[in-house]
Design brief:
Strand content of chain A: over 45%
Oligomer: heterodimer
Distance between the termini of chain B: 37 Å
Low-confidence stretches of chain B: none
Structural class of chain A: mainly beta
Radius of gyration of chain A: 14 Å
Order of helices and strands of chain A: EEEEEEEEEEE
Number of strands of chain B: 13
Low-confidence stretches of chain A: none
Number of helices of chain A: 0
Strand content of chain B: over 45%
Largest sheet of chain B: 7 strands, mixed
Number of helices of chain B: 0
Largest sheet of chain A: 6 strands, mixed
Helix content of chain A: under 10%
Helix content of chain B: under 10%
Shape of chain A: globular
Order of helices and strands of chain B: EEEEEEEEEEEEE
Chain lengths: ~110, ~120
């Protein structure tokens, strides 16, 4: 069935370093790939997304890349700060595209000062 | 700004009780969702509604039912709560952004403990 695999499950970096989270998806018809950030005790919030007709998108210190051939997409955070510490979820639209999203298992990012 | 609200942030219930979790959105979105979040398991879809009175089972519907009588409100019902339903429950609503793309916005979550 439709599936999104996310790696790593936990990631620890020093403040100022870069962090990369990778996701692979199973459905080649997926056309939308959002990333959500969930701080401790808060709701997941959309931080960046990418559509299937774009290879890369940047917003200040975060960027997302998409490789449709390989069916994977990645979140890149540069110059990490302690406030980047959170759980990050990737997602992809399933083939049915009725509005559902298939979520990855989440990555807990810890940025050490 | 999209607003998705949930009736309770924290709830403690006893085994066997009937539990109602309410979610309200103010963006006239067609779609509403109930997810369950457990450590290491990510966000698992319980039920999805794409219109008033319309619903679709998600990945883990067993032990749950839903109701959507009005477009802005989506309720999750635990007919007879059990301890393994202790979890964080997240509601989301979503609408069409164009080009077949749908966005989703989450509510603050309800942490349910079943004793």
């Amino acid at each position: 069935g439709e599936n999104v695999e996310q790696h790593p499950s936990t990631l620890s970096v020093q403040e100022g370093d870069s962090a990369v989270i990778k996701c692979t998806y199973s459905d080649s018809a997926s056309n939308y790939f959002p990333w959500y950030k969930q701080e401790l005790g808060k709701r997941p919030q959309l931080i960046i997304d990418i559509r299937s007709n774009v290879g890369e998108k940047k917003d200040q210190r975060i960027a997302v890349t998409l490789n449709k051939t390989a069916k994977h997409f990645s979140l890149h955070i540069t110059e990490t700060q302690p406030e980047d510490s959170a759980v990050y979820f990737c997602a992809a639209t399933p083939i049915s595209n009725t509005g559902k999203l298939i979520f990855g298992q989440g990555t807990t990012l810890q940025v050490k000062p | 700004d999209v607003k998705v609200t949930q009736s309770s942030r924290y709830l403690v219930k006893r085994t066997g009780e009937k539990v109602f979790l309410e979610c309200v959105q103010d963006m006239d979105h067609e779609n509403m969702f109930w997810y369950r979040q457990d450590p290491g398991l990510g966000l698992r879809l319980i039920y999805f509604s794409y219109d008033v009175k319309m619903k679709e089972k998600g990945d883990i519907p067993e032990g749950y039912s839903v109701s959507r009588e009005k477009k802005e409100r989506f309720s999750l019902i635990l007919e007879s709560a059990s301890t393994n339903q202790t979890s964080m429950y997240l509601c989301a609503s979503g609408g069409r952004m164009g080009q077949g793309i749908f966005e989703q916005f989450f509510g603050p979550g309800t942490r349910l403990t079943v004793l």
